[in-house]
Amino acid sequence: MLYIRADGSKEIGMGHVMRCLSVAEAVADIDPVYPPVFITADAGCRAMIEERGFRVIVLGTDYRDMMGELPLLREVLLGGPCSAGAMLLVDSYQVSREYYLALRSFVRVACFEDMGEAYPVDLLINYNIYAPALESRYQERDPQSCIEDRYPQRVLLGTEYMPLRKAFQGAAEYVVQDKVTNVIITTGGSDPFFAAGAFADVLCDDEMIVEQGIHLHVISGPFNRFADELKRRYQCGEMMQWHDHTIAHSGGSKVPITIHESVKDMRSLLLQSDVVITATGSTIYEVSALGVPMIVFYFAENQRQGAEALGALTDIVNAGCFAAEHDAVADRVKEALKRCIMDNDYRQLLHRQEKGLVDGKGAHRIAERLTKLYREQAR
Fold it and tell me: In the CATH hierarchy, which fold is given to the domain comprising 2-164+360-378?
């Protein structure tokens, strides 16, 4: 049986939980008798996980103190219905080598890893576009050491293991239009630096963008601390129901802006867009699966490698780190969007390049490996 240790909140966003949900759904398809159970430090993301049909155990701990939660975690895992065959998938940036060594004393462990750390786990997963270049780092052994469990026993590397949500796993008939009209701005679950506002400001002030009749669609994530400020700044009306989520239209900007909250069918929204401006993270792979031309930026160091690799391997513009240089990144985004508006051949090129990055089967591949491991353990 698979347990999943992940957290989501305004502080850390929802990326960890979202990719784990994709894996959980794939595991439940293979093993419906024992669907995965989530374990979280607090109740911040409990409702979202339960809405997807999975049980949540809340430890009541601080997500930053992973070592401190070990006694409770041990109690949960060894007291469960399938303790002999239990396996734990961990997705956190608060972990350490010591944490994993302690876990492996009583449970088999898998982890998502983005930074090139060779953690001592049974299965390490890094689906990022730059991951294959890290293989030697994950696999190397210190000839002076006899401690083999200092390193991962197995690794899954590269975009073939990208755990896309089910909505993005099937083929999509996206067509690049002759004219750019609808532009999506998506800044993650929490938008910690109000990037959406900065981008909307600079785009609304550009004469060419105004004249082209561009319509901006801002995705406000579940933990967006600036959601009310966004609506106030652009004089948006009351939120109203629209298909599967709520929207508000602007009344005071040169460029029409629609704010989308609680979006459940992101796939349909993306398929109706002409360009996507997105933070680096799982979203870039979802956009790639559809082939919608995109512009990327990032907030933190753990996202830098993905943005740089994407910019190096394709013609996608990496606008840089918004946390470090707000104005410069906003300007680069504006110029990249103007190129997309004026150059249809460029958007066609991005479409072809993106479609070659992921095939949508990553979650199933991970689920097969995880179920094989915990079933072996149960024998």
Answer: Rossmann fold (3.40.50)
Where residue 129 falls among pLDDT bands split at 50, 70, 90?
very high
Of residues 116 and 177, the one with the higher pLDDT is 177
Task: Please determine whether the domains at 2-164+360-378 and 168-355 fall in the same fold group of CATH.
Answer: yes
139-156: b (≥16 Cβ within 10 Å) or e: eeeeeeeeeeeebbbebb
CB 282 within 8 A of CB 302: no
Evaluate if residue 302 carries a pLDDT over 60. Answer: yes
pLDDT tens track for 144-192: 433 455 567 889 999 999 999 888 987 668 999 999 999 999 998 788 8
**Check whether domain 168-355 has CATH 3.30.2170.10, yes or no:** no
- Where does the pLDDT of residue 142 fall: very low under 50, low under 70, confident under 90, or very high at 90 and above? very low
Domain boundaries, the chain: 2-164+360-378, 168-355
pLDDT at 263: 87
For the stretch 85-108, pLDDT in tens is 799 999 999 999 999 999 999 999
Q: What local confidence, expressed as pLDDT, does residue 146 receive?
A: 38
